[in-house]
Amino acid sequence: MKLLLYFELVTSVALALGLLLAVVFQPGAGMNVDPKALDAKALGSYADTASKLIGGGLVEFFMKLIPNTAVSAFANGVVLQVLLFAVLFGCVLARLGPTGA
Questions:
Q1: Which residues lie closer than 8 Å to 65 by C-beta, 6 or more apart?
Q2: Residue partners of 92: CB distance under 8 A and separation at least 6
């Protein structure tokens, strides 16, 4: 119960802070962009690149989640691989008990 209350409190504070900062700094206010003047065809190359990135399914996602080595996860900067390594390392330390502490 305490965890749920803490989650709700922290999430509400983060939301309120984000709204406050958006009102204060007004991101994008001075851009002066006319949406009618934008060329939709210019976005075609970006859409083609995005369609190449999508695909592979769940199996490919999990295969890319596992790093080749522990160092390669950090060297390549793949956040999910680093996170997986950190979680596994934390589980091992927790299983060691007092020795890990």
A1: 80, 81, 84
A2: 100
Please name the residue that has the structure tokens 């749920």.
Answer: 4
**For the whole model, what pTM was predicted?**
0.44
53 touches 64 (CB < 8 A) = no
Question: How is residue 66 annotated by DSSP?
Answer: S
Q: How far apart are CA 66 and CA 68, in angstroms?
A: 7
Tell me the C-alpha distance between 22 and 69, whole Å: 41
Name which of 101, 80, 81 is nearest 90 in CA terms.
101
DSSP-derived 3-state class of residue 29: coil
For 6-22, write each residue's pLDDT tens digit: 999 999 999 999 999 99
